Amino acid sequence: MEGFPLHILLIALMLLLILSGFFSLSETSMMAINRYRLKHLAKQGHRGARLTIKLLNKTDRLLGVILLGNNLLNTASATLVAVIVATLFAHDEFALLMGTVAVTFAILVFSEITPKVIAAAYPERIALTASYILTPLLIICYPVVWFVNLFVSALLLLFGLKPQKGELEQKISSEELKTLVLEGGHFIQHKHQSMLLNLFDLDTITVDDVIVPRSQIEAIDLNADDEIIHAQLLTCHHTRLPVYRDRMDNIVGIVHVRKVLNQMQDGKVTAAVLEKVMRKPYFIPSGTSLFSQLQLFQENQKRVGLVVDEYGEWMGLVTLEDIIEEIIGEFTTHAPTQANSFIKQDDGSMIVEGSTLLRELNRKLGYQFPLDGPKTLNGLILEYLEDIPEAGIGLNIAGYPLEIIQTKNRVVKTVKIFPVSASMASETKATE
Prior knowledge:
The protein is an alpha+beta fold. It has helices spanning 6-32, 35-43, 47-56, 59-89, 93-121, 123-140, 142-158, 174-183, 190-201, 226-235, 257-262, 271-277, 290-300, 320-328, 336-339, 358-365, 377-385, 423-426; strands spanning 212-213, 220-221, 240-244, 251-256, 283-285, 304-308, 314-319, 342-344, 350-353, 394-397, 400-408, 411-417. The protein has 4 domains: 6-158, no CATH class; 174-204, no CATH class; 207-328, CBS-domain (Roll); 340-426, Uridine Diphospho-n-acetylenolpyruvylglucosamine Reductase, domain 3 (2-Layer Sandwich). It starts with 5 loop residues before the first helix and ends in a 6-residue tail after the last helix.
């Protein structure tokens, strides 16, 4: 090789460094490429994507041919530099040392670091292009790669490691998927992103978080006079109503108002008509996740369920619409009795009913009350004070100044929530 002109040797050295850089490019781009994007391109018929998938499904062989080529070229570059130094400086040891340092620097800069940085920035472009070259190389070098991998497999088994087949399919947790949705926000409409995130939360949210308390439920007493029943049906704000006998605890069915109207006789609705058209009540155990309940509604062909606690006492009801609202946001029309549950004051404060769900407060008013304990504002206040408060008492929960306006029957009925920005001016002493 010493008989070759110097410029030929230098050109050969440059070619070796470039080829080594190609293998470094290929290695980093193949490992950094978005697998889900790759599958999408393959489904669209992209040939490079299909070749890349085949290569990644044989990761051990792919890495084998890349590293084989990379190391051979780097070794050849070091040998060629030794030849060039010997040609120029005979066998000067210092010159040989400096040549070794120079080729190491050149390999690091031109064959390793720079190509890998570029590949990390543009993995898709490079990987799809490199797959056309690596595929035939893998076929040509297969015997050598197979022989090398035999020793690799044996070494892994010696350390108790079982070599895994390279698979494109990757398992991803719900939290990781949620992160992907958050990071991909500039590709997804805000509304769609919000709906996807709400879907992830259905497993953690229970029916207790969206329940309509029994105190706010319209129900019909079968033992009431027909005139009372008729008047109640004419003025009700819902299409499905619970039906009970004597006591609210004794729920005997659910009636659909439309079916009642179809069964009207002589212009009046009687208890007999209600008994004829009502359906058996559908009960839901307290603590059931919304995702499970959504499936149960679908399987049982129900739209309304009565939530019962561990003692069998019913706490309220949950409808299919309540669950859907947790996914897509509020869309239903509420009864007039519920329309003014939030009253804004001139000073920026809000008058809120104590029975209001904390999730509803957070969602509609943008508050950040804790959701890992009590479900209602009343429950949160009672847990904080550990006592039944009186009207006029002020306190601070989660950074929000509160004032109890009205209490009745050991329950906080009305609360004023002051704006956080004015907390220093309006905050009263916390009472325990």
